[in-house]
Amino acid sequence: MNLGGDFYLFANRVGLTFNVYEKNVDDLIYETPLADATGFQKTFTNDAALTNRGLEISLTFRPAKPGKDFNWNVYMNGSAIKQIVRRLPGEALVWFSDGRSVVSRVGGGQNNYLHISQGVFGESGDVPVDPVTGLALRNGYSTSYFQAGDMYFKDVDGNYVIDDNDLQVGGSFEPIFTGGFGGTVMYKNFNLTISGAMLFDRTLRNNALSQRLQNYQDPLALRDADGDGTPDIPATYVDISDVDYYTLDRTNARYPNPFLVNTGTQSLRDAQTLFEEDGSYIKFNTAILGYNFNKDWLDRNFKLRNARLYFTIKNPFLISRYSGPNPETVNSLGRDYLGNYPNTRAYTIGANIEF
Amino acid sequence: MMRLYYTLILLFAVLAVTSCKKFLDVAPADRTGSSSFWQTREDVESAVINCYGFVFEKFNDFNSPVIPAVGDMRCGGIGGVVGAGQLGLGFKTISNNDLSNTTDLNVPERYNLVDIDDWAPYFESIANCNITLSEIEKMEALTDDEKNRYEAEVKFVRAFTYFYICRLYGDVPFYTEPYDKTPRPRTSFVTIFNTLIAELDAVKDDLPWTPSNTSDLGVRANRASIYTLIAHLNMWVAGFDKANQNKYWQDAAQKCLAVKNSGEFELLPLEETKRIFKGKTKESIFEFELNRNYGNTSRYVNLGQWMTHSPIVNYGANSDLFFSRELMERIYPPDKPDKRRDIWFYLPYVNNQTFMFLKQINVADPAGDWIFEDNLMIFRYADVLLLGAEAFANLNNNTEAISMLNMVRERAGANLFAAGAENLSDAIFWERQKELIGEGHRWYDFVRTGRVLDPNQALTYLTQEEFDRGAWTWPIDAKARINNPEIVLNLYWVR
């Protein structure tokens, strides 16, 4: 189903194009894991289906009446999309993938699947104790009991053991709205061009931060820096003095104590809501300010055909509440990694001269 | 212009026709694709041999010492380096039947004792057998006779796999069709065993008593392997389906008697222990071959790895583990003559690490590492005789029972059965313990006869309540429930 329209109003000074659609995808091929007693590990099935509902909109606008010396136009485009899972293989209602870190639900989309962080234990006395067994909250059926400086994960099933049964549905890593914007202003020989991108309503997992902290827990371990699932290089020790982590004189910190070694509590695990952050941003990609010399004047004095001076800034600024370096350079599951390169800001001054 | 079009159309048509030629169907030179396999008799031969490989892989050193650990060590009486952090701790945990203590069970990690709860490899074997059976059925290159022979072999391997895992885990999901993806619930092993008995009964005479090629003796299923497996299936299920005990006993007795009457098998002199356990002898019924020359050596399929020292292997004067004096005295009363005790043990009652168990001692290199080349014995003629004796004794046919029992005793240089002085059923049970020690039978004999409930007989005994709750089973890895909500784990072991 598709509905669209193009409008041009006020002598083409306002242009609007939109497209509303609903697209059904049936017979989606899924790799379906099998029960181990079948003797096989997985099979392929095509019984999944989803629906994409979206709105695409593009707007151009000239605030001032086009003239000889002054021209101004602005554009904006965007796409809002909502993905709804209609059917999962074998009529399943929920589907876990990527090592149970992603959950898909019929009637919903895909979300992170993680532990809920409820704050750092200020002192060991705060750790809940099972009144039946007398054992403190622990990680798995092990002797890794939580203590001061550990994260207080929500014990959803109330058995005083933090394990996979306590995982909960978290934020969605699929952005609801993505778009671009830009504009040009021309005044006499000056021109200014700006372009940018924006993205709203997306949850990121700031694993760059969790890994930065984790590195201090096991200084000799090899790390998976590029996020491909295999450890490859020794850890790097990025300064964490800017992080509000637990110490003896800062017991109400936001992040757990990274120096709790020899503990299996995994308080700094990647998959927890502590590292979920809003990934919305508005970003200016480039700004170019140029000056075109008068052609007659050039021809008369220098026998030049054309000359232009310009000044460019790449990545001038980014408006975002994300605490990591860059909400753009994350993977398709919305995860930031310590190995990601930040975008660089570049300034260019240049001249074009044509003889 | 029109002419040009016609020419082009014609040209296209010619190309389209010629491209149907076979030169496009190139077979890969380095792989076997499913379309190029299952063509010749040799393909079937190698696929059938491969069926044995799947289940053997689970038993050998890349996994865990399933057979000695469950079959022998679980009965208790294990001493040696079994303290905290020592390499016998996992075995000690098994011998205490403390299987949910995965922390201790996992010491040392390299024995992978915690992975015994993973049943997936056995089901790979079963899935492979199911596919092989369906493909053999479709083969045109085989005569009906050849098809029957291969099918009997594969059905034996499949039934053996189910036999093994049902004794280990209790009820299991039952898959018999190729490419079956259904998540199935666990089927009662009584049902499974009855199905298997009927299935094997239909094919039991399709194989010869002994293979035409003597190098296949014992290592490929023969008629005796199938008869013995049917007997074992019957004897196990008789211990649980007590209402039909007589039927099972009769079937088992007949099958064992048929093996004996075939005249193809004999008990070798005990002095030739090394030859018996190297395998491929007249005593072999079914075994997996271990031979360094063929690249399949294994350390963990028998107890020699832990119960020998110099000069058998280069390991000082102490074994890692030993059978306690209490266990040894129960099995081999010190005042009775028995060549098995004298030949198979060094210092049998010493109760310390100078003890050695010398049943499987075909060591590839006594000056070097532990690489035992004794075949992994599954069924041996002595086992068949004693199983038959047990079945006949249960049916009160004492003459045949005593005759079979005495064949084994005579070979062992032990006193023949003295009616009146001994209880026949007890005598046969303990004869199996004497004869089959270290071959992975003892625990299962304790369980199926119910003797595991008697503290005077079993060192690691269970109460009736524990038995009924499934303490005789092995825990099942919780991953069996992934993608299969029908699976209920062995509840005795679930916290």
TrEMBL record, chain A:
The entry's keywords: Cell outer membrane, Membrane
Principal subcellular localization: membrane
Cellular localization per UniProt: Cell outer membrane
Organism superkingdom: Bacteria
Protein's name in the database: TonB-dependent receptor
Species classification: Bacteria, Pseudomonadati, Bacteroidota, Chitinophagia, Chitinophagales
TrEMBL record, chain B:
Domain spans labelled RagB/SusD: 352-493
Gene3D superfamilies: 1.25.40.390
Keywords: Cell outer membrane, Membrane, Signal
Top-level division of the source organism's lineage: Bacteria
The SusD-like N-terminal domain, residue ranges: 111-232
Signal peptide interval: none
CDD domains found in the cross-reference section: SusD
Location(s) in or outside the cell: Cell outer membrane
Principal cellular location given in the protein's record: membrane
Pfam family, one: SusD_RagB
InterPro entries per record: SusD-like_N, SusD_RagB_dom, TPR-like_helical_dom_sf
Family: Belongs to the SusD family.
Name of the featured protein: RagB/SusD family nutrient uptake outer membrane protein
Organism from which the protein derives: Niabella ginsengisoli
